[in-house]
């Protein structure tokens, strides 16, 4: 009778918390910060991609922003939207192709910097959301004086600037890793 040594235990990958119960995270009209018919409405579309450039179909993207005049909304009611107000908050789950979209308004500048939208991405493999900013291409002159952009190396700044994608529409892809990794902010 031959006795064989048992196989060495294999290392298992570390895990994040979860799975999550997605009830109420994505919600009806969550991506409509303002209705598309509102004067001044813009559309932002993008994809969340992993380090290999593959879509992340189960991510959640949130945006937080000022209104057209640079005012920060300070009233409750981000979930209960009447169709005319502006909460400054939106949330969209990604589709099977990693896509997300928002209808909102272009924010005004706040605090002397360039207009931007704060973006949070919740995704598998992340214990906490990653934070970044979306800046607008037509505000190039204001980018020069933006305190946050001044801290980002010039070759990395394009990962924070949306691309025009038609009339009153922008494209902003979030690359979680890899050669085109989006600049993420630490707090």
From TrEMBL:
Query: Coiled coil where?
Result: none
Entry EC no(s): 1.13.11.3
Q: Which InterPro entries match?
A: Intradiol_dOase_C, Intradiol_dOase_core, Intradiol_RC_Dioxygenase, Protocat_dOase_a
Alphabetically, the GO molecular function entries are: protocatechuate 3,4-dioxygenase activity
What Pfam families does UniProt report for this protein, alphabetically? Dioxygenase_C
Family matches, as SUPFAM superfamilies = Aromatic compound dioxygenase (SSF49482)
- Tell me if Oxidoreductase is a UniProt keyword of this record: yes
> Which terms are listed as keywords in the entry?
Dioxygenase, Oxidoreductase
For whether the record's keyword set contains Oxidoreductase, the answer is: yes
Indicate the segments forming the Intradiol ring-cleavage dioxygenases domain, all copies: 41-140
**Where is the chain membrane-spanning?**
none
Q: Describe the family membership recorded for this protein in Swiss-Prot or TrEMBL.
A: Belongs to the intradiol ring-cleavage dioxygenase family.
Instruction: Output this protein's name.
Output: Protocatechuate 3,4-dioxygenase subunit alpha
What organism does the record attribute this protein to?
Answer: Actinomadura graeca
């Amino acid at each position: 009778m031959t006795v064989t040594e048992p196989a060495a235990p294999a290392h298992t990958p570390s895990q994040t918390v979860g799975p999550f119960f997605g009830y109420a995270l994505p919600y009806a009209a969550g991506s409509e910060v303002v209705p598309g018919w509102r004067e001044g409405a813009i559309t932002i579309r993008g994809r969340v991609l992993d380090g290999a450039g593959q879509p992340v179909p189960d991510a959640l993207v949130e945006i937080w922003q000022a209104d057209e005049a640079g005012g920060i909304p300070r009233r409750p009611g981000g979930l209960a939207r009447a169709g005319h107000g502006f909460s400054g908050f939106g949330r969209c789950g990604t589709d099977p192709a990693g896509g997300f979209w928002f209808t909102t308004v272009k924010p005004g500048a706040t605090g002397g910097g360039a207009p931007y939208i704060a973006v949070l991405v919740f995704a598998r493999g992340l214990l906490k959301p990653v934070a970044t900013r979306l800046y607008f291409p037509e505000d190039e002159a204001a980018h020069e004086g933006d305190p946050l952009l001044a801290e980002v190396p010039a070759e990395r700044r394009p990962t924070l600037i949306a691309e025009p994608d038609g009339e009153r529409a922008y494209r902003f892809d979030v690359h979680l890793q890899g050669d085109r990794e989006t600049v993420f902010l630490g707090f």
